[in-house]
Design a protein that fits this description.
single chain, 473 residues, alpha+beta, Cytochrome p450, 5-stranded mixed sheet, 20 helices, 14% strand
């Protein structure tokens, strides 16, 4: 008793740790996931989540699928209950329909970064927003953006060609910077007819700087620890801590510009775009959405839309730089058309380009996994049974309400596919990309981010040497 009286804070901390440790042990031995297979190891405090963070993004999940099967459990960090991981088709159909939703923690962080758009909402609100936005992402709607996407890609290619020419025909570039310029320009035009001026506008610089700072933090172990602590104590997110409050900088910058678009009215907009169309529909009473909701749609599109596609293109060019024979083959496929690729060429007549895109989306997805939380006590039936180390065949998994589920899955839109193909084909017509020899790895930091091994403090980097295709000036 004297120790408790003399050291109340230490005693309280020890009691809290002991409580969570006992709870964790009881859940591991008596919880609904106890019969599931799982990977060995795992830190006593940080669980398998630290392993998944420190390994190249997605690698740990893939390895565990190979050893444990399509459905398994991993140890959560900070005594969090075991986490269910599955890519089983039957389980996915069940969990992605209506029996699970995003965790409160993920929703809180999503709201802070981009607002209450589709990645945040669930249930009836999600259905309403998806219904309202889906017409802008159909095949026909995507086709109508082709000329705009091509123009933006050409503008950035011309700017890069000028820089390479000034450097005697060859220079080392940080690939994410130049790819991001094109995708940001495209999303700016598509979302609200805003010209980010090839990344040179003040708004573009604000967005890129804020995003890069977030990525730098998220790539460090401190970023992982911060997320785990916030999951355990979500009220911390409202504290005036600069690193936390910085996460809203991108949303604030985009909303400031989008708000001006709304204020000036759709009649002042030069081109058809998502925001002006939504504002027009809302003014006619044909759309149930507040101004804040419209602004959040734009914030989400600008950040998520440009960053995920930029990441896919970055990895594509890196892989092509390491395998110049594939780069040459793809360039020849473009050259054999005898013209600039049309929409029909890109989407249906270039099989090798399509194969490159599919492999990049499969091997370098923008997200390592999707998180869901069970809404109620439930039973998940597996299409493909798994076996634990005792040889028990498991065909269904009982779960409790609140069970955290990781789904290693990433989906792309038609717009992202068209962006990818237009930008990649444009760049390969003008430039050759060469490996610099730098050791590159990757980590999930908001999205999949490359970094130079040994130089992690500088954040997302992927240096390549770029030169002009023979005979060009």
């Amino acid at each position: 008793m004297s120790f408790i009286a003399e050291h109340p804070l230490a005693s309280l901390s020890s009691a809290v740790v002991l409580f969570f440790a006992i709870r964790k042990l009881s859940q591991s031995f008596a919880g609904p996931l106890r019969r599931l297979p799982g990977p060995s190891g795992g830190h006593w405090f940080w669980g398998h989540e630290l392993i998944a963070f420190e390994r190249p993004s997605g690698d740990a999940y893939t390895e565990w699928i190979d050893t444990c099967g399509q459905t398994y459990k991993i140890k959560g960090a900070m005594f969090h209950p075991d986490i269910l991981v599955t890519v089983d088709p039957g389980a996915l159909n069940h969990m992605l329909s209506k029996e699970a939703e995003k965790s409160d923690f993920i929703r809180t962080m999503t709201d802070r970064v981009v607002g209450k758009s589709l990645p945040y909402v669930s249930g009836d609100t999600h259905k309403r927003q998806r219904y309202q936005l889906s017409p802008f992402f159909t095949t026909q709607a995507t086709r109508e953006t082709f000329d705009m996407i091509k123009s933006c890609a050409q503008t950035v290619a011309d700017r890069l060609r000028s820089e390479v020419t000034k450097s005697s025909g060859s220079m080392i570039m940080n690939l994410p910077d130049w790819i991001g310029r094109a995708t940001l320009d495209i999303i700016g035009r598509f979302a609200f007819d805003f010209d980010f001026k090839c990344g040179e506008s003040n708004t573009a610089k604000t967005i890129q700087q804020a995003w890069n700072e977030q990525v730098k933090l998220a790539m460090q172990r401190a970023g992982f620890i911060g997320l785990v602590v916030l999951r355990a104590f979500p009220w911390i997110v409202d504290l005036p801590i600069p690193a936390i409050q910085q996460e809203g900088a991108v949303k604030r910058a985009v909303r400031d510009v989008a708000r001006k678009v709304i204020e000036r009215g759709p009649s002042e907009t030069k081109r058809k775009n998502l925001l002006s169309t939504l504002v027009t529909l809302a003014s006619r009473g044909e759309l149930d959405a507040s101004s804040d909701e419209l602004l959040d749609h734009i914030s989400t599109l600008v950040l998520v839309g440009h960053e995920t596609t930029a990441g896919s293109l970055t990895w594509a060019l890196y892989e092509l730089a390491k395998k110049p024979e594939y780069q040459t083959r793809l360039r020849e496929e473009i050259k054999q058309l005898g013209r600039e690729p049309t929409y029909e060429d890109l989407m249906g007549r270039m099989p090798f380009l399509d194969a490159v895109m599919k492999e990049i989306f499969r091997h370098r997805p923008g997200s390592s996994h999707t998180e869901r939380v069970a809404l109620k006590d439930d039973v998940i039936r597996l299409k493909n049974p798994v076996y634990n180390d005792r040889g028990d065949k498991i065909t269904e998994i009982p779960i409790k309400a609140g069970q955290l589920i990781h789904i290693p899955l990433y989906l792309s839109t038609m717009l992202a596919i068209l962006e990818f193909k237009v930008i990649l084909s444009t760049y390969l017509r003008y430039f050759e990309f060469h490996d610099t020899g730098a050791t590159i790895s990757h980590r999930f930091a908001n999205t999949l981010q490359p970094y130079v091994v040994g130089d992690e403090a500088k954040g997302n980097q992927l240096p390549l040497r770029v030169s002009l295709v023979g005979g060009q000036k």
